Amino acid sequence: MEPSTNNNLDQRLEHLNTLPTGFFPSPASPASPASPTSPNTVTHEASTHGKHTHKRRVIVVAYDHSNYGDAMISKAIRLGLIRTSDDIRLLHIVSQSDYRNLFAPMLSATGTSSGIREDVLDSNMANAADSMIYEVINSLRKIGFSHVRSEILRGDPKESITDYCRMSKPAYILTGSRGLGAVKRTVIGSVSSYLTKHCPCPVLICKLDPSEIEARKELDSKKQATFADVLTTTDNAASYRFVEGSIKQTANELEFPLVLNENISYFGKAIHDLIVRVNYETSERINVKIYDKEQNQVQVSDSPLGLVRPPVQNMSGGRRKKNSKNYEFKYTNNPHFGFQIIRKSDNAILFDTTNFPLIFEDQYLEISSHLPETNIYGIGETITKFKRTRNVTTLWPRDAHEKYQNMYGAQPFYIDIRNNGTASGTFLLNAHGMDVVITKDRITYKAIGGVLDFYFFVPNDNKPNSVVQSYTTLVGKPMMPSLWMLGYQNCRYKYPNIGHVEQVVSLHKQHNIPLETQWIDIDYMDAWRDFTFDPVKFPQERMLQFSNSLHANTQKFVVMVDPAIAIDPNYQPYTRGQELNVFIQNSDGSEYQGQVWPGYTAFPDWWHPNITDYWHTLIVDWMNLLKLDGIWIDMNEPSSFCLGSCGSLGEPNPTVSPWLNNITEQLRLHTLQETALNAMPIPEGETRNLLYPKYIINNGAGNLSEKTVAMNARHYGNISHYDIHNLYGHAEGYITREAIKKYNSSTRPFLLSRSTFAGSGQYMGHWTGDIVSSWDDLKMSVADVLNFQMYGISYSGADICGFVGNTTEELCARWQSLGAFYPFSRNHNGEGTISQEPYLWNSTAEATRLALAVRYALLPYFYTLFEESNRLGTGVWRPLIFEYPQFATDFADNDQQFLVGTDILVSPVLTEGATSVSAQFPPGLWYDWYNYGLLNSTNTETTQLDVQITHIPVHIRGGAIVVTKSPKLLVKETYATAFNLIVALDEKHQAYGRLYIDDGHSLEPTLKSNINFIFTNNTLAINGQFGYPDAESLGNITILHGGQDKIAYSKAIIIAKNNIDKAFNTVSINNNHTVVITDGSLSLIQAFSIKFQ
């Protein structure tokens, strides 16, 4: 999309987000007329994870961006129908044809022959609508409506509005008697009568006189109307230049100062003097760091814990050869300072800031790079398509699970795959909140603090998987899980009592469904306080008995621990924390008080030197008491239900921002400057405005302090929460992992966290949070898990069957089939929903048994992949484009299939009522897992696969040797069986595979085997490192013939290392595969070969 050339554009943008005072009237006072709804009307809580807190009304407003809609809102404010305390949803309904007419010309040409794909439309629709009405939302926020947002739905207006109200359960819906839709057709008027009959909540129809519409014309002329107007840029900003002759250079490093061209500030205090330091760290990695000369800006490395410790490694034995780098760094002063990262092998420009300004202020940093038509993956955490489209991604952890908005973690890393398949990576080491804006021709970072500390990854082979390896080498490679962690797991929030949990475990076994680990959410706690037991529902004795019973059956037990500690002078975790002074403080030195499930709470300060003593003692004692196998940490963004430090007992602090400028897209800088002039002044005695910075990122919650710790709260060393908010969950993970290691220093710690940052995968796994039980969220979960593989958090997965809302038998069956292949596989659902254990429906139970049989058969394969992930830094799941980048244009948008490692292709069913699934196959031979049927793909063709309700298509790549086990109900039982081999020959009649063996749990195993399997020239060679003495024997060997005509082996001769030969007969089946049945005498403790005749 090209910038608009409308002559009136500048004039219109001058008023964007700065609509005149009085655009909407002042809200009604508390004494204004009450809502027409009953005092007992349904209200909604500002919470996730299904747990209750203080409530506010949800009011849905059917809004169409017309003058009529604005007049309707104004009238509703005057009449007191909407209040500043309400959760207001401005609801848009856009039909498919209207949306295409309005937005299709603005999208890149990625459509099919029938037009723009639906997934592209969906991913851009919400962003476009938000942009079109942002100044309206901001005008409402300026007069006190702090909880207002837009929602957009595509479909029939009548049904869509009704369905939305059914799901959101508003106090009522406000609609007009007429109005315009998204383009030209009547929307509101045609549906109001339908809503009064079918909507499940009260419907208020606001009728307006023509004079009321006429009176708004001048005000409404100030509104900007199009998405195109919003997508402009800050090209005319003042920037920096370097002084000739000031450059210092060595073989390994380049350094020079920058000075500001013009002393102009936009969103903070302009920093006049900067330093650029370029470090050629390895042949594949370059660090470009731009920071303030005085080093007053808070950096990630300022953390006392050193949670992110990028290693600097010399190239080629410590002496850097002149041409050993894969990249080149270029810089210029024309027209201002800018730099380029160039890949030497093809002279491709990977990052290019030369035509864009650099803005560096104490509370606003902006830098842009040219972005050619390419494929971008990463930048999270958010729910969206795997391939990133033009949008804004905000990095600001918050307690929410909403599509296209910021969520629990911050991952400022992306991979750029060009259409020729070459890949590179970019990582910004900055823990401040930021917006990352992707438009047609650029990517822009807009951070509210810190420095610009970039790392660029240019691997030798230019492959995406190598980029992931380079990245995780920097931030930390994924943890190695224990073998039991690969088993199937179960949980839910709001188990009624321990007896019910015991029954759940028993019923899994009765229905022949594997269950390795049972989890318990915060239900077990006394009044939701950490390290306590509900004396009636989950008494301590029964909990310990339950733990012992699980362990007696070789099963495992994990419970949740939240970071917030209840404030109670009789509660030991609180009093001990006070003694050690380890809680976050207010700016005046008093204790910061939040509100979470147990009520008023204090928050541990993970940066305090006493925190190790405090938290380690709590965790070790707790794990000892319950004999726990792991810890689950939640609510660690951190989440708090007060806005600001809570007041005295009673209502939470009602503080709201008198000014909010929530900017989602890039705007002309003079507009931003004008907007910033209306911002709150810096508080007296402070150097920065932490609560209300002039530039506010596109935080889905609005206020930066909403639903979390206030930005002016203080951590140890006088560090503001504003500066390390993105690191809080990561820091808790680091401290908690060390505590678990103290509990058992020889066993690999098990830790699962909701909030993450770059490098978190070396400490813990991650689940994707409060996912909805819907087909859309089922589909999105594939992209979500793929994202975390590239972030270096291999042990990740989504709540199988969904957490929020009720699942269905079909949805749960399909989800159990997919979830069996999640690296972390767990069914988990929330309060107020139906039970969804897989044994509750026949088809779901059967689908679960079949899919988990595949997973448990593949346990040696999964375990070997996790070892590779831990050693090399690769993902366990891989998107097709990462494994086959040479077909980038074919696989760029495929996030509905995935590879487990390199050899297992999974094609899940992600749509309701499906009887077949469309699956892409890379060129080569692919064998059906279930019947060994052969599919010979000559290109990246799409094939229709039949999928009955209990079936998930799984294929083995030709050229792979996959090690399997005979699946049982428990991991230990499964691993006690012999190792089997599936030798899937390729077109050249060759195959390769690998197996890693150790004891399955030691933190630093000393006895281990790394075994290679190579099939060529009709011989299977087994060699490698044989250091694990107790490896099970080799069982059956199944050879898939690779399409060779009528090949059938009749004999297998074993050639052992001690020259003792042994022959086994074979069984040939359907001329397409041969099975060798051994006698169990072949142990994988030495090298040997098998010759097939």
From TrEMBL:
Source organism, top-level taxon: Eukaryota
What InterPro entries does the database record attribute to this sequence?
Gal_mutarotase_sf_dom, GH, Glyco_hydro_31_AS, Glyco_hydro_31_C, Glyco_hydro_31_CS, Glyco_hydro_31_N_dom, Glyco_hydro_31_TIM, Glyco_hydro_b
Its top-level enzyme class, in one word, is: hydrolase
Where's the Glycoside hydrolase family 31 TIM barrel domain?
478-865
What reaction is this protein's catalytic activity?
A: Hydrolysis of terminal, non-reducing (1->4)-linked alpha-D-glucose residues with release of alpha-D-glucose
Compositional bias segments (type: Low complexity): 25-39
Which UniProt keyword terms apply here?
A: Glycoprotein, Glycosidase, Hydrolase, Signal
Start and end of every Glycosyl hydrolase family 31 C-terminal domain? 873-962
Gene Ontology MF annotations: alpha-glucosidase activity; carbohydrate binding
Q: Tell me where in this chain the Glycoside hydrolase family 31 N-terminal domain is found.
A: 335-434
Region of interest (Disordered), ranges: 18-53
Q: What's an example GO BP annotation here?
A: carbohydrate metabolic process
Q: Which residue ranges does the record assign to the UspA domain?
A: 57-207
Any Pfam family:
Glyco_hydro_31_3rd
The family classification in the record reads: Belongs to the glycosyl hydrolase 31 family.
Show the PANTHER family listed in the entry: ALPHA-GLUCOSIDASE, P-TYPE DOMAIN-CONTAINING PROTEIN
Tell me what this protein is called: alpha-glucosidase
Per the UniProt entry, what species is this protein from, by scientific name? Answer: Mucor plumbeus
